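[audit] Reproducing an earlier prediction to check determinism. Same input, same settings, fresh worker. If the tokens differ from the archived copy the diff job will pick it up downstream; this log only records the rerun itself.
[audit] input (155 residues):
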Amino acid sequence: MGFEELQTGVVVSYPFLWAREAAAGETEGRKRRPVAVALRLARPGGDAVVLLPITMQSPAKGRKAVEIPETEKQRAGLDISLRCWIMLDEFNTDVIGKSYYLEPVPPLGVFSRPSSHQLQGCSSPISRPLGNRSPVASSAAALSFRPFSDMRLFP
């Protein structure tokens, strides 16, 4: 995969930095995990991507997440025997071509076109410029996203 293929719906391995880790002073994710590209934004200094973490742990009460159906897990290159969720209330951003973490390697997989469009809808419009790596605990409040509670990511 070249960087041009890093588009909405693509699932890649990435050292996701959780907000709780950033609050504790950590600057890098502890391990590589699958993340979904929610949005790619053209920027003069390099395109930015919004990355949503995929987890196998059941989300805590009050968190915003959607469970990934088996068909979409298969498309995304995830283990279909495990329950998986895309977390919608936390994200990282990174700049393509300037990142130490994004690499031009084949993706784990790609969500279907309808699910990718819905994923893109979760993270648009963005009301502030994106930095290099900016974990945010509550993306809905920080970026004026559409309300996640009304979102059905997978039909």
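[audit] rerun output stored. Observation attached for the diff report: Residues 3-147 form one domain.
[audit] end
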